[in-house]
Amino acid sequence: MATNVLLPQWGMNMEDGLLVKWLVKEGDAVEAGQPLVEVETAKIESELETPVAGIVAHIMAPEGTTVDVGTIVAVVADPGEDVPRPSTASPPRGPRVERRKPPGAAALGQRGRGVQVTPVARRLAGQHNIDLDRVQGTGPNGRIIEEDVTRAVEAELSAERRPAVQVVPRARQLASRHGIELSQVQGTGPDGRVLVADVERAIFTLAPSGVAEVIPLKGIRKTIADRMMHSAQSTAPVTLTTEADVTEAVRFKEELLSRWREHRVRPLEIDLIVKATAEALKEHRRLNASVGEDEIRLLKEINVGVATAVPDGLVVPVIKRADEKDLLSIAREIREMADKSRKSQLSVDDVTGATFTVTSLASYDIDAFTPIIDSPQVAILGVGRVAEKPGVHRGEVMVRSMMFLSLTFDHRALDGAPAGEFLRAVKQKLEAPGWMDSEHPKR
Q1: Which of 176, 314, 333, 409 gets the highest tally of CB atoms within 10 A of its CB?
Q2: pLDDT tens, position by position, 306-340
Q3: HSE on the CB side for 363, CA within 13 Å?
Q4: What is the rounded distance in angstroms from the CA atom of residue 43 to the CA atom of residue 310?
Q5: Sheet strand arrangement including 379-393
Q6: Three-class DSSP category at 85
Q7: Domains detected in the chain
Q8: pLDDT tops 50 at residue 171
């Protein structure tokens, strides 16, 4: 029986994917779980696998094509089965781009030469009516990337402003970095061409006051900006802050240092925080949820995302079923994810499925802050540094290790009281961490 292989939605914000490279051809025999095609999305590159064994009967779209989530990209049939080519597959959105085409506008180009185009670059070209056949790709194997289209847009705008003036490439790059409007630069080259020296002179007179460099908002930075803006506009965020006495947690972590030495794992505060958060979520299910326009969904699995800094942004690897794992297992998984992050080896599965997120600025000596919810999750926990300060313990003033915890929650999904109860539960579990030890029964 034939099986249609669809482009899945890897993450709540995925809308489409670029078919980068087919790993099979029509007529090939495949095993269940075998990769069929390399797919690139706005967040990650991965491989789409066949769910069944059989023969590749049809490949529905060529390499370099951008297709929507849910589109049939391949058909796998039983050996000897004669399967007609499906006619219900969603139309691919590349190589031909015709969206947002204004009346009388020129065609955007078919890219019939087999050159690949990233989804972000294709969308940008559609927005600005850029003919992709005229864009020189600088990505791997000549792939057209966002920067290539951006340069093409700038070139067309410049041509519209000053059609008779030419600009040498280095001068254009220098002007872009410093926010210089080239239409205001007097060119001293042949036929008024703008030279590097012209732009350098203009920097002192035309550059915005105090601006040393203009950094384009693109790539992972642009993705984060879009998601955070969406969260700010689509949620009703409220932040609660409490201070936890983590003296016992720090002492417990030091005890684990010698016991975990044989496992080659150094205990960290984040290990205890993720474990305490997962346990608190078991008791306060309203925080382990997602929210839409008309409904709140309480989720079965407790999957804790751990925000991790990477160059130009952050990623959120996910500890799946964190409530079912002991502290050492959580610590090992956090280290593994951190290593993958540094090497840019995180898979789609590694960064999807979070039901709650923990983010820490402790390493930057930050006490408290307001984290932004990763919608459609309903809450996020911000973790500050551990600081030694005077505190009252058992009626006496002494030096204690203190930590601020900041919980931002979506007021559409729950009120302050249940959010406060959850935050208090996390605090209490960190202040008396003996239950985390596998040698002790859980409280």
Answers
A1: 409
A2: 998 876 678 899 999 999 999 999 999 999 999 98
A3: 8
A4: 13
A5: 237-245, 396-410, 379-393, 356-360, 304-306, 318-319
A6: coil
A7: 3-77 (2.40.50.100), 228-436 (3.30.559.10)
A8: yes
